[in-house]
Amino acid sequence: CKLLRLAQCEWPPAAEIEPDAMLRHTICYEYEAWLRDERGLADATIDALLREARRFLEWQSGHGKAPGLWALSVRDIDLYMDMRTRGLRRISLARVAAWLRSLLRYLHRTGRIPTDLTPHVIGPMLYAYEDVPSTLDRSQISAVLAVTRKDSSPRGLRDYAILQLLATYGLREGEICRLQLDDIDWRADSLRVRHTKTNACSYMPLVVPVGEALLDYLRLGRPQVEIREIFIRSCAPYTL
């Protein structure tokens, strides 16, 4: 074949493709068609799945005990996931696990591996709101207060007063809900707080931003009802 290409003036001669590389190329080509035609996934999702498929197949080619995929085992899956763990956050590793399950499901469905290995791909446990920061820095707090202050509706005035209490004193939700009109001493500029855990009371200085926010809410936002709690619903029924 090489002499024939030279005789036909084909130069440089075409590089020979190794069987493993050809197998990976064929699998990815057919996998892409399956993702698009049968599963109807978006292009961005297909690209992500294919990137992980190429990465896994290339890794398996260098680490597999036998050529091809027929001998793929649970231990191979564990070793690959251990390798992918390095430098990835939990949410990123969870995506890797999902992408790998998709590939393994396809390989089993098309008869390239004898066993469905998808149950053996163990990803990290994710929790709701785990990406939400536990604290805000001063600039973020100032930005939230600035945006909330623009809302002059009854609900906006209430929310701004609550945020001022949170930002200034670090009160708990229950402590804010239990605040009553009698807890504000306007003459002494103090605020009485009933602690939910100990049932004890603390007296906080009523700083100007908090006092102004509370006064605006009580005058312009809070419904005129007999309920003694400061913060109530902005519309009937006026409960906590």
Task: Walk me through what this model shows.
This protein is mainly α. It has 2 domains: 119 residues, Tyrosine recombinase, N-terminal domain (DNA polymerase, domain 1, Orthogonal Bundle); 84 residues, hpI Integrase, Chain A (Orthogonal Bundle), CATH 1.10.443.10. Helix content is 52%, strand content 5%. The protein has 9 helices and 3 strands; from the N terminus they run ααααααααβββα. A 3-stranded antiparallel sheet has the order 1-2-3, with no helix packed on it. The protein starts with a helix and ends in a 19-residue tail after the last helix. The mean pLDDT is 86.
Quickly give the structural class.
mainly alpha
List SSEs in N-to-C order.
HHHHHHHHEEEH
Number of strands: 3
Q: What is the CATH top level name of the largest domain?
A: Mainly Alpha
For CATH, the homologous superfamily of the largest domain is named as Tyrosine recombinase, N-terminal domain
Look at the structure and give the mean pLDDT: 86
Strand arrangement across the biggest beta sheet: 1-2-3
- Please tell me how large the radius of gyration is: 32 Å
- Fill in the CATH topology of the largest domain: DNA polymerase, domain 1
CATH architecture of the largest domain: Orthogonal Bundle
**Principal-axes shape call:** elongated
What gap, in angstroms, lies between the N and C termini?
86 Å
